[in-house]
């Protein structure tokens, strides 16, 4: 077709526009085309060309900006698809996924991942050992074995010196904490599906759990929305503070008041 925006963008590696009279073929003389390369700025990998075309009467100087923006959106979508993502659910029944595939992990391995998620800057072996075991007589060799098994399950995710996660992480407990920090009570309660690693004896994780529970309890005792509290109790019946707050708000003649009282027994 002769000179065209797609070819120019491919050759120049930059956004290009070919106006109607610049087209060599008569059949496309009444068209204007905008094209931009889709390229990874970090690796230089070329994915393709984004092209927008319209009749020359609708030509707009913002066409170049539009096609560049479209190319950026596609590039971001490709990079997101290629990115390694570790998802940790630790509120309620623990669950871990890597790139949307479920992992069968031990309690200790989940604890290690949670500690590393809470220490994004990294942590050395001795600090990790104490955070996980405290003063219990467990050798560092045992911890190294746990780390080795984790690395076999999720290769290239755990760095050493210091130990840290080098992939994107999505954790329900971190999202709940962030929502709590921002005062988004409804979001916090939606994310809250149970106590944070209820069976964990890790001193580091127990301290985080106690602090989070104390802050959450403070918020719950200030809630005036009965429906919101009922949703919490329906998901987490052992949330005593939510039950107590409901009993404070509900009138004495409420038919299910007796059921709430049983939860406190």
TrEMBL record:
Keywords for this protein: Transcription, Transcription regulation
UniProt-listed InterPro entries: GAF-like_dom_sf, WH-like_DNA-bd_sf
Domain of life the protein comes from: Bacteria
Protein name as it appears in the record: Transcriptional regulator
Species of the source: Acinetobacter baumannii
């Amino acid at each position: 077709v002769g000179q065209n925006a797609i070819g120019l963008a491919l050759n120049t590696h930059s956004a290009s526009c070919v106006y109607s009279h610049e087209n060599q073929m008569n059949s496309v003389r009444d068209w204007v085309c905008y094209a931009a390369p889709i390229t990874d700025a970090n690796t230089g990998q070329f994915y393709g060309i984004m092209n927008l075309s319209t009749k020359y009467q609708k030509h707009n100087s913002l066409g170049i900006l539009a096609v560049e923006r479209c190319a950026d959106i596609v590039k971001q979508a490709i990079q997101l698809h290629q990115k390694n993502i570790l998802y940790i659910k630790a509120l309620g029944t623990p669950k871990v996924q890597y790139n949307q595939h479920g992992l069968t992990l031990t309690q200790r391995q989940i604890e290690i991942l949670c500690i590393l998620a809470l220490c994004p800057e990294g942590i050395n072996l001795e600090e990790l050992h104490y955070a996980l075991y405290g003063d219990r007589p467990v050798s560092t060799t045992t911890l190294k074995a746990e780390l080795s098994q984790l690395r076999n399950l999720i290769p290239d995710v755990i760095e050493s010196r210091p130990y840290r996660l080098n992939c994107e992480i999505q954790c329900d407990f971190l999202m709940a904490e962030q929502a709590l920090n921002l005062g988004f009570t409804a979001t916090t309660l939606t994310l809250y599906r149970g106590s944070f690693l209820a069976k964990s004896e890790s001193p580091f994780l127990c301290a985080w759990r106690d602090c989070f529970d104390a802050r959450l309890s403070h918020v719950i005792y200030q809630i005036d929305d009965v429906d919101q509290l009922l949703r919490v109790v329906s998901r987490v019946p052992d949330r005593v503070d939510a039950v107590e707050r409901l009993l404070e708000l509900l009138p004495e003649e409420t038919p299910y008041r007796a059921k709430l009282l049983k939860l406190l027994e």
